């Protein structure tokens, strides 16, 4: 499917004094895409969002919106709207007035405004609250109004700056689904900024992992999780075991490596040219334990156990390496392993990944 | 609040409070009491009378002084508040701007200088400039020393307000001026109001500068008052003072009600 380019960021850099927040970042966001900027705090993701919104101007580079250069336009001349982390609902206006604010500035007539406000309140299930002030709402309700206010002027792109971070856990999960549904319903391109990898994996069509002012990897959630291109991405997304390995041979997307545990395994790879030292990423849930152990088998001793409800995490000391292993608690407590217990671990060919340098 | 931490339960709380308020308000109460005394001699109470009020309201020069003071205070407050608002907007939204620290110091400088110095300097400057009109001189001088008093509360309010609101307004297609008028200004209004009140009171109350700059037709109320006291301690003074106290109470109550309304709106 070919889709139009909603946002094109080209070689954008941003410096604040001596500090370089972004270094020549380029990427394209497609029309009707749920696109996530993911990274730790200080990685430049918010700066990038603020530049698309117009609150900051790139030091160099260009940003275009549906083919029109907008890099230096002030915020009120860009057809993008933002859902702020703090929601920033105007406290002196009713919810209706909040939602109508953008429409008034765009010069919509009264009848059209009224219809659109009603439509938006309906969309976020807040119709009975139209005459209330923001202070009279709960966090989740404020979130909905912030969304309605930003969607009302029919933006070409909607920007969301960590909108779920102020909500409690249960509500956050519900809002994730709601956001996703809203995006499909409206067909508007969403650019979502978060530091929460679960949110990113759950909601996004594509994720752009930012770190140290650069794009570390851009891809679908499963590509980001299953095929991390470097140590930063493998470390930031999910938990993993890093092992110093020696690449023995490379054959296309596969490499044969010798692990510190003494065994040789076949791992997926990208960007490794030939034999030499490398880093291997081995996800805890990809290591089989006891009855689930398959492939190359190694022996170890359980040194720590963390019961997480749905999963149990084990720390297992093997000859040459300490591995984190997680096992889904599918059947019963019977399959739990005690500290000090000897266990067999299994690593299946292709389940680990050699990281590019 | 836990009962044990309630300050009202501390020993001696009641006594100290009563003493404190006596100390604070006893002189004022005496003035109000004596303003109704029929007798000319302050220490002799001969009966209730409103005649000093009548005398005060019939006193032409006094009413002129009130008028002068009010005109100067209103115009100076308007100028000082506008300047302070602009300064506060620029300084709180561009704290890293070159010269921001310096500008802020300059705005606040009149607070630190002894007023007599400022008054003399203003007088000399005005003579040098050949500015002779009494009213203009008073308004210019009052606007100057009122500005920092208007600036401080506005600045505090702006500093406490997230820039998210202004950004949200601009994000929703408001031009900068519209964003200011419809979002920023309503949100900082309590601060603007406190600033205006403060500069109004400071201007009404000013003696040193006004006395220095006073010309024949432009005597302000405090200056007139002072000249009256020097001549004789007429009970008329008590009546005028009482009227002023009532005026202040009305203004202060209005300020309180307005800011409480704003607080309720914006928790």
Automatic annotation (TrEMBL), chain A:
Reactions listed under catalytic activity: ATP + H2O + polyamine-[polyamine-binding protein]Side 1 = ADP + phosphate + polyamineSide 2 + [polyamine-binding protein]Side 1
Q: From its record, what is one biological process in GO terms?
A: putrescine transport
Q: Which domain of life is it from?
A: Bacteria
Q: Does the keyword ATP-binding apply?
A: yes
Q: Which GO terms describe its cellular component?
A: ATP-binding cassette (ABC) transporter complex
List the keywords (alphabetical): ATP-binding, Cell membrane, Membrane, Nucleotide-binding, Translocase, Transport
Query: PROSITE patterns of this UniProt entry?
Result: ABC_TRANSPORTER_1 (PS00211), ABC_TRANSPORTER_2 (PS50893)
**GO terms assigned for molecular function:** ABC-type polyamine transporter activity; ATP binding; ATP hydrolysis activity
Transmembrane stretches, by residue range? none
Complex formation? The complex is composed of two ATP-binding proteins (PotA), two transmembrane proteins (PotB and PotC) and a solute-binding protein (PotD).
Q: Hey, which family's this protein in?
A: Belongs to the ABC transporter superfamily. Spermidine/putrescine importer (TC 3.A.1.11.1) family.
Spell out the protein name for this chain.
Spermidine/putrescine import ATP-binding protein PotA
Species this protein is from: Paenirhodobacter enshiensis
- What does UniProt list as this organism's lineage? Bacteria, Pseudomonadati, Pseudomonadota, Alphaproteobacteria, Rhodobacterales
| Gene transcribed to yield this protein | potA
Automatic annotation (TrEMBL), chain B:
Set out the biological process GO terms recorded for this chain's protein. Answer: transmembrane transport
Q: Which UniProt keywords apply?
A: Cell inner membrane, Cell membrane, Membrane, Transmembrane, Transmembrane helix, Transport
Keyword DNA damage tagged: no
Q: Note the topology in the membrane.
A: Multi-pass membrane protein
Q: ABC transmembrane type-1 domain: which residues?
A: 66-255
| Top-level taxon in the UniProt lineage | Bacteria
TM regions (residue ranges):
12-36, 70-91, 111-129, 183-202, 237-258
Q: Which InterPro entries match?
A: Bact_Polyamine_Transport, MetI-like, MetI-like_sf
Protein name (Swiss-Prot/TrEMBL): Spermidine/putrescine transport system permease protein PotC
Q: Which organism is it from?
A: Paenirhodobacter enshiensis
């Amino acid at each position: 499917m070919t889709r139009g380019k909603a946002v094109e960021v080209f070689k954008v850099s941003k410096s604040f004094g001596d500090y370089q927040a972004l270094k020549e970042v380029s990427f394209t966001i497609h029309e009707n895409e749920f696109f996530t900027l993911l990274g730790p705090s200080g990685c430049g993701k918010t700066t990038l969002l603020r530049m698309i919104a117009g609150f900051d101007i790139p030091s160099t580079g260009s940003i275009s919106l549906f083919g029109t250069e907008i890099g230096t336009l002030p915020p009120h001349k860009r057809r993008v709207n933002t859902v702020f982390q703090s929601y920033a609902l105007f406290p002196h206006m009713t919810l209706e007035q909040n939602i109508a604010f953008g429409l008034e500035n765009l010069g919509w007539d009264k009848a059209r405004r009224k219809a659109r406000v009603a439509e938006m309140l309906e969309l976020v299930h807040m119709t009975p609250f139209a005459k209330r002030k923001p202070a009279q709402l709960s966090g989740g309700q404020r979130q909905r109004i912030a969304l309605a206010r930003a969607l009302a002027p029919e933006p070409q792109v909607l920007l969301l700056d960590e909108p779920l971070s102020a909500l409690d856990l249960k509500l956050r999960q519900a809002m994730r689904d709601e956001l996703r549904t809203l995006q499909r319903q409206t067909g508007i391109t969403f650019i979502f900024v978060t530091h929460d990898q679960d949110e990113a994996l759950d909601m996004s069509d594509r994720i752009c992992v930012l770190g140290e002012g650069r794009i570390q990897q851009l891809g679908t959630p499963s590509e980001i999780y299953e095929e991390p291109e470097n140590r930063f991405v493998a470390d930031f997304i999910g938990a993993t075991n890093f092992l110093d390995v020696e690449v023995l041979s490379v054959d296309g997307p596969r490499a044969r490596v010798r692990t510190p545990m003494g065994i040789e395994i076949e791992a997926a790879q990208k960007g490794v040219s030939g034999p030499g030292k490398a880093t291997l990423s081995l996800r805890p849930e990809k290591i089989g334990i006891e009855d689930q152990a398959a492939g190359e088998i190694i022996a170890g001793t359980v040194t720590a156990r963390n019961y997480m409800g749905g999963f149990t995490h084990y720390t297992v000391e093997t000859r040459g390496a300490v591995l984190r292993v997680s096992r889904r608690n599918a059947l019963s407590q019977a399959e739990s392993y005690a500290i000090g217990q000897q266990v067999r671990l299994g690593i299946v060919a292709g389940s680990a990944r050699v990281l590019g340098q | 609040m836990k009962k044990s931490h309630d300050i009202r339960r501390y020993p001696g709380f009641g006594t100290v409070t009563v003493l404190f308020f006596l100390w604070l308000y006893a002189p004022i109460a005496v003035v109000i009491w004596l303003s109704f005394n029929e007798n000319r001699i302050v220490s002799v109470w001969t009966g209730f009378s409103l005649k000093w009020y009548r005398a005060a309201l019939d006193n032409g020069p006094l009413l002129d002084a009130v008028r002068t003071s009010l005109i100067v205070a209103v115009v100076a407050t308007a100028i000082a508040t506008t300047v302070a608002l602009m300064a506060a907007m620029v300084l709180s939204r561009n704290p890293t701007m070159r010269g921001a620290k310096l500008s802020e110091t300059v705005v606040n400088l009149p607070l630190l200088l002894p007023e007599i110095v400022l008054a003399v300097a203003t007088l000399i400057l005005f003579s040098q400039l050949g500015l002779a009109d009494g009213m203009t001189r008073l308004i210019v001088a009052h606007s100057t020393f009122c500005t920092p008093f208007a600036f401080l509360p506005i600045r505090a309010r702006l500093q406490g307000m997230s820039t998210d609101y202004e950004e949200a307004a601009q994000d929703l297609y408001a031009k900068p001026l519209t964003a200011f008028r419809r979002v920023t200004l309503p949100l900082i209004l309590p601060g603007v109001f406190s600033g205006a009140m403060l500069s109004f009171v400071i201007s009404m109350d000013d003696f040193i500068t006004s006395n220095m700059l006073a010309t024949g037709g432009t005597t302000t109320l405090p200056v007139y008052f002072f000249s009256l006291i020097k001549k004789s301690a007429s009970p008329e003074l008590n009546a005028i003072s009482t009227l002023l106290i009532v005026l202040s109470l009305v203004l202060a109550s209005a300020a309180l009600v307005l800011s409480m309304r704003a607080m309720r709106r914006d928790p």
